[in-house]
């Protein structure tokens, strides 16, 4: 039925219940497939906690996590099945029409006709399927509003449509501004090449201080550039002579 304004009347959609925290949320964005269907969660935290508990054992009837002492169903071949409740066990017996004994693992009070056995050292573990990523697209407008952020305008980006050619080779020397102190010019070596980028290492330092520059960066120059422009080239780290005597 529609109203004069064209809106559809009726009950609003019911919120789904998170499998782990049991809170009512809409929508549930995280899904985990299992042997008996899929489980839905309101957050990645709930999904992670469920997986931890699920790996320890799940109810053989409803496939839910067993919280507390499981009700165990023994079979003649020494195998057993665990259930989250007596009702699930009864339903399983009714569906399978098998007459077996049921026991409570931790010695809690069991229904009439049951016995208590110690927990099995090797309980069967259900096999989990692959984690399914949330089926929703990222909304930049909503994200910026939620984080009270501002997007960088497109005309602020000055990259070339076609990146410049990179003809540098590993081992070549050059002069580069120290990334930790841009007022200092140091000797650097090319230790890596990736597309239009150079991986540089200041002479005397180790790979923990490597940094990247584009081939057209104004922070790298050929050898002799510093001297020609009246600057002072800093000696390599560990150089013991006075910097003023450095050629």
Automatic annotation (TrEMBL):
Q: GO terms for CC?
A: nucleus
All copies of domain TRASH, residue ranges:
18-54, 59-96
MBT repeat intervals: 138-236
| The UniProt record lists the keyword Nucleotidyltransferase | no
Q: Does the keyword Repeat apply?
A: yes
Question: What is the name attached to this protein's record?
Answer: TRASH domain-containing protein
Annotated GO molecular function terms are:
chromatin binding; histone binding; zinc ion binding
Q: Which residues cross the membrane?
A: none
Single biological process term from Gene Ontology = negative regulation of DNA-templated transcription
InterPro entries in alphabetical order? Mbt (IPR004092), PcG_chromatin_remod_factors (IPR050548), TRASH_dom (IPR011017), Znf_MYM (IPR010507)
Q: What residue spans carry the region label Disordered?
A: 99-127
Keywords of this protein's UniProt record, alphabetized?
Repeat
Its source organism is Cuerna arida
